[in-house]
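To whoever is on call:

I kicked off a structure prediction for a single chain this morning and the downstream step that reads the tokens threw a length-mismatch warning. I double-checked the sequence; it's 185 residues and nothing unusual in it as far as I can see. Pasting both halves so you can look.
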Amino acid sequence: MSSKSASSLKIQNIVATTSLGKDVPLTKLAKTIQNTEYNPEQFPGLVLRIKQPKSAVLVFSSGNLVCTGTKSIAQVKEVIEQVIKILRKINVKVTDKPKITVQNIVASGNINLALNLNFLALELENTEYEPEQFPGLVYKLDEPNATFLLFSNGKLVCTGTKNNQQLEDSMTQLIKKIKEANKNK
């Protein structure tokens, strides 16, 4: 399989963080802006829902943000810009350009191979497979750090990578390991 199969992965969710370098009055934000949830007794952050691109941003009083639900880095940047515009409405002026750090990418795809999960659970290291509890096999890679959820029909979910290169590399490694294991059959 060529690396073209690796790019058949579709990003479903990116979790990214940034700091605005300004304190944010969360109570004022919750009272002024719609699409917010703020229950400081239960959780110190405010949830701000953005309609387009659809995402949820955790806003902390320190000015730290956690952005979830986007499907590309461009969308993450767009969401952060929207948050900055929203904060201007309550007189929080962000002057520094926020540095965005991707914490996790969740992608799904298909390797177009039927997988014998019982066999792979024995052949591959770092696997967890309990078919009575869940039909997928969990396979962990160390470098790059990635966790795969594999299904017998060849469908998969990959989580833990922080950029497209790591995503591609982990997919290439997965296919290589499966091919090596299948040679041992």
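Update from on-call: the warning came from a stale cache, not from the record. Cleared it. Sanity check on the structure: The longest helix spans residues 164-183.
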